[in-house]
Specification:
Blueprint (H helix, E strand, L loop, with lengths): L1 E6 L3 H21 L7 E3 L7 E8 L5 H8 L8 E11 L7 E8 L1 H17 L13 E6 L7 H6 L7 E4 L1 E8 L6 E9 L12 E2 L2
Antiparallel strand pairs: 1-3, 1-8, 2-6, 4-5, 4-7, 5-6, 8-9, 9-10
């Protein structure tokens, strides 16, 4: 099973991001009517900020992963503010369109590090690339057809933020119509010293 850990924007932030994505879609369509369909746009209900992608994990290991992740996290509730648009890769044709953070990245990095320590206890191998928090807005199906880096600079990003009070372990189900995400475990953020045990809120 494909697993990842993420925090989710609240309904207000998801709505603001969806409206900004629609402005970008219309801007692209104004340049050329087929460009808006050159991107697989993320559904508002699927928006998330990935903390760790665990990749394929054998179902037999799921219980141990849940066990190490379940206690409340010592990071404490935190606030993030959405920032500017961006694209990956930064050089060459864009393949991913995203929105970064203007505030809260350092706090999320600490949360990322705390979760990494727990996952290693469960024997999960993690990507060693630097953590770069962002919300993926769309995946370009036809790279090179447009200068998406320039297009995103022409559209105002959403001016909003959201409180992070928990993160969720998700299972990703891939399908032709697009992925769906099944929540398996919700892990609360509490202002408690590291190492103090607590009960996780299990969803599955």
């Amino acid at each position: 099973m494909r697993l990842f850990l993420a925090v989710d924007p609240d309904e207000a932030a998801s709505g603001a991001v969806a409206r900004a994505a629609e402005r970008l879609r219309r801007c692209a369509e104004a340049r050329h009517r087929t460009l808006a369909h050159a991107v697989r746009w993320v559904e508002p209900g699927n928006l998330h900020l990935t903390l760790h992608f665990l990749g394929e994990v054998d179902e037999a290991r799921l219980a141990s992963v849940k066990t190490v992740l379940a206690p409340p996290l010592a990071a404490g509730p935190l606030r993030v503010e959405l920032g500017d648009w961006g694209v990956f890769p930064t050089a060459g044709p864009a393949r991913v369109i995203w929105i970064g953070l203007s505030a809260g990245a350092a706090a999320l990095a600490r949360l990322h590090a705390e979760l990494a320590g727990r996952l290693r206890q469960a024997g999960i191998a993690l990507d060693d690339r630097p953590f770069s928090p962002h919300l993926t807005i769309g995946r370009v199906k036809q790279p090179g057809r447009a200068d998406w880096a320039a297009l995103v600079r022409s559209v105002a990003p959403p001016a909003c933020g959201f409180d992070v009070v928990a993160c969720t372990l998700y299972r990703s189900h891939l399908a032709g119509a697009g992925p769906s995400y099944e929540p398996l475990l919700r892990i609360s953020l509490e202002a408690r010293p590291a190492g103090v045990p607590g009960a996780g809120d299990r969803l599955a």
